[in-house]
Write a structure and sequence with these properties.
alpha+beta, eight-stranded antiparallel beta sheet, single chain, about 25% helix, ten-stranded mixed beta sheet, about 750 residues
Length: about 750
């Protein structure tokens, strides 16, 4: 009875995940969520869609209430029926009481059987030994293993949307605005006085009010088609034709249960014989399941708020294939897109399966840039850091070893694609078996596009590489290579491969020394582009700074040089520029870049009328750009990770760092999801008093950095004065347990 009394005082675990999926019991019919049970439709996979768990030993995880400061143990029950589970009968797995501080566990029960539904629940013990009630039961379908996709994922979903503007522009013509661009399908419910054809136009841009732009650019979409309507009231769906040119390049295809999609915000309908009801036209937007309420951000800077909204929506809107693709034009996954998508997706929604699915694809379908092969390790490490689940690292460890490109290393320890080391055997080992865009093998990229005629007032060189001089040994490529060595050392330690860990640690030191010898200017301390050029670009220096290759004695000169170059990189390069700035204490300047209103800014994307981030800063820099490229959404993760400073200190957010770098902002408030639960941070300055309010998820510990630009000393936490620990413009507060806390600095 004492146990029961204790359990009633502690909230049960919630938000149960199986293999990181939160909604394994959600059913869909052609993209629409339906109110049916897994049990009722499990044998109708051709009619309905649902997530299938396929790993032999699924990982279970859960969130606990903020009143639980430390988890001391858990107990999991897994049963083959909901009735058994309700009666506390676990015919497949009863873990018993397992001492652990973690909120995840690997299944070790009886072998799971394909085609069956399983039910599970969990209870935990807190730091005082009190047991919670068992959670609500969760269920999952166990499916056949797919060698091409080891990790579970959701089916695509759809959302029916009404236009926000319906304007009659002629006797039989209507203009509609859905408010934002989306990859979608029109659905019409029309009443016509006659049987006749109507004309439907859709587009992503307008040339004047209520007029769709019919020639907006090479890949900014516009389409006109006819639709025969019958007399009377009928429903119609537009079936977009397949894009033969795109399909010739082996893109990610839309699944049959969804059908083809097309990007549009605006629609015009003409030759309508009858009045158009405002609810007659809907748009069926297609995307990967996305929780709009999982994250939020607002601040004292209205431009920054708009940039956040732009980037957050971009993650949702560009998820329409279920993979991170480069936009509508190609619909091909690229490693660089995937890295930025991954970080921004994590920031706005606690969703991990899409990144895993994309990386699995890219390991065996690589693209051509040298640096992008090296990004696989970064993506894999991010997966582990944000989830705490090491199975992706274990599953693909040998593939990751190949992707770091060590066979391209010369006697100096650095790698090069131009020293005749790209043999057929090497290329086959990294799964490059045929040409990509007419070229076989790896080619140094630095940034994209590499060339371009338009410069403008903010740039010195054409293209997006800041005049980078390509030499056999490339500073940007080798900055990535060094970062790979550092992370492979960490990965090997995580997987208890101590010999490998020592090997990568030695190589990291060697690459660090060789990098300085090959690329550091002895007089200035800046980084040259290559081993046989004196040219110094933004990229050589920002990647060196971002990846820890600039020693303390060179920091000031490198930082000042970077600042002098402005935004002399692409929307892709901006991810690493902003990371480098925040990590080196240049948050004020980083905020200036994110809130700029120049041509090379996120506000310019908004000003041009786009509601999804562009492929480039403006059409003048890349005439064939498209308007739906999430690799331009770097602020989506930078605002969370760097400006508000929320990052995992240990894998799976067991330990959290909150280090706001707010620059000129006087107020900022963030809600961001994690695998452990929601983190909330609000910072304000009022009459010289700084206040930091935080909510820390249950079972976690945080280190807070209180901004202290004026050197104040009166610090309190939850009304209690504490001793100061000063560090580089911050006051540190360690070991903050879960719950809501208020820090005040006077």
């Amino acid at each position: 009875m004492a146990h029961l009394a204790q359990s009633q005082q502690v909230t049960a675990p919630q938000n149960l995940r199986c293999d990181l999926l939160l909604h394994t019991n959600t059913m869909y019919a052609n993209g629409t969520a339906i109110d049916k049970s897994l049990e009722s439709i499990r044998n109708q996979s051709k009619k309905y869609q649902f997530a299938a768990i396929t790993s032999k030993q699924p990982t279970f995880s859960w969130e606990v209430d903020t009143t639980i400061k430390v988890i001391s143990a858990y107990r999991i029950l897994v049963a083959s029926s909901s009735q058994l589970l309700e009666n506390q009968i676990a015919d497949y797995w009863n873990s018993g009481k397992v001492k652990s501080t973690q909120s995840r566990a690997i299944y070790t029960g009886k072998p799971l059987e394909t085609g069956k539904i399983y039910y599970w629940k969990v209870a935990v013990w807190n730091e005082k030994g009190a047991m919670t009630p068992f959670s609500q039961a969760a269920s999952f379908y166990y499916g056949e293993q797919n060698p091409a996709e080891f990790f579970a994922h959701y089916p695509l979903t759809t959302e029916l949307q009404l236009p926000i503007v319906v304007k009659k522009t002629g006797t039989d013509t209507y203009f509609l605005d859905f408010g934002k661009d989306a990859l979608a399908q029109p659905q019409l419910h029309l009443t016509s006085e006659v049987s006749d054809s109507i004309w439907i136009e859709v587009g992503e841009a307008i040339e004047k009010p209520y007029t769709i732009h019919t020639n907006p650019g090479r890949n900014i979409r516009y389409r006109k088609l006819s639709l025969f309507v019958e007399k009377g009231t009928h429903d119609y769906s537009i079936q977009w034709p397949a894009d033969a040119k795109r399909n010739s390049r082996n893109p990610i295809l839309m699944p049959d249960y969804i059908g083809e999609v097309y990007p549009f915000r605006y629609m015009s309908i003409s030759n309508v014989k009858g009045e158009l009801d405002p609810k007659s036209i809907q748009r069926r937007m297609v995307y990967y399941p996305f929780d709009e309420q999982a994250s939020s951000f607002t601040s004292s800077d209205t431009i920054l708020n708009q940039v956040w909204d732009l980037c957050k929506y971009s993650i949702k809107a560009t998820s329409f294939t279920g993979y991170y693709v480069d936009g509508d034009r190609e619909r091909i996954p690229y490693e660089a897109d995937a890295l930025i998508n991954q970080l921004s997706h994590y920031a706005v929604d606690a969703e991990y399966s899409m990144a895993r699915r994309t990386m699995t694809y890219l390991l065996y379908h690589p693209t051509w840039p040298t640096e992008w092969s090296l990004q696989n390790v970064l993506i894999a490490w991010n997966d582990y850091l944000y989830t705490g689940d090491d199975r992706l690292l274990m599953t693909y460890y040998s593939e990751l070893q190949k992707k770091i490109l060590m066979p391209l290393a010369g006697n100096n320890g650095l790698i090069s694609t131009q020293t005749n080391k790209q043999t057929d055997a090497f290329l086959t080992s990294i799964h490059i078996t045929k040409p990509f865009d007419g070229r076989r093998g790896l080619h140094d990229n630095v940034d994209w596009p590499q060339t371009g005629n338009y410069v403008g007032s903010e740039k010195e060189y054409g293209g997006e590489t800041d005049g980078f001089v390509y030499r056999p040994y490339n500073a940007v490529v080798n900055a990535y290579y060094y970062r790979n060595m550092v992370l492979m050392h960490q990965i090997a330690l995580t997987l208890h491969k101590t010999v490998d860990a020592a090997f990568y640690e030695r190589n990291a030191r060697r690459v660090y020394d060789s990098f300085r010898t090959a690329f550091r200017d002895l007089k200035t301390g800046l980084i040259h582009d290559g081993d046989s050029t004196s040219h110094t670009s933004l990229h050589a220096n920002m990647f060196a700074l971002a990846f820890g290759l600039v020693p303390a004695e060179d920091l000031n000169v490198v930082k000042q040089f970077i600042k002098s170059r402005g935004m002399a990189c692409s929307v892709y390069g901006s991810q690493f520029l902003l990371d480098a700035l925040y990590d080196s204490g240049m948050g004020d300047y980083a905020l200036e870049l994110m809130t700029a209103t120049t041509q090379r800014s996120w506000y310019n994307m908004i000003r041009t009328g786009s509601t999804i981030t562009l492929e480039a800063w403006d059409k003048v820099y890349k005439p064939n750009l498209d308007l739906n490229h999430a690799w331009g959404a770097a602020p989506g993760n930078i605002i969370v990770r760097k400006l508000m400073g929320v990052e995992p200190l240990s894998p799976g957010f067991e330990q959290i760092r909150i280090k706001p770098q707010l620059g000129k902002l006087t107020f900022a408030s963030l809600k961001t999801p994690t695998v452990k639960g929601e983190i909330a941070v609000t910072y304000s300055i009022n009459e010289g008093i700084s206040t930091l309010d935080v909510v820390i998820p249950g079972g976690t510990t945080a280190t807070l950095y209180m901004p202290n630009p004026l050197g104040k000393t009166s610090l309190s936490v939850d009304g209690t004065p504490i001793r100061n620990e000063s560090k580089l413009g911050f006051l540190l507060i360690r070991n903050i347990r879960s719950g809501k806390h208020t820090v005040v600095l006077k």
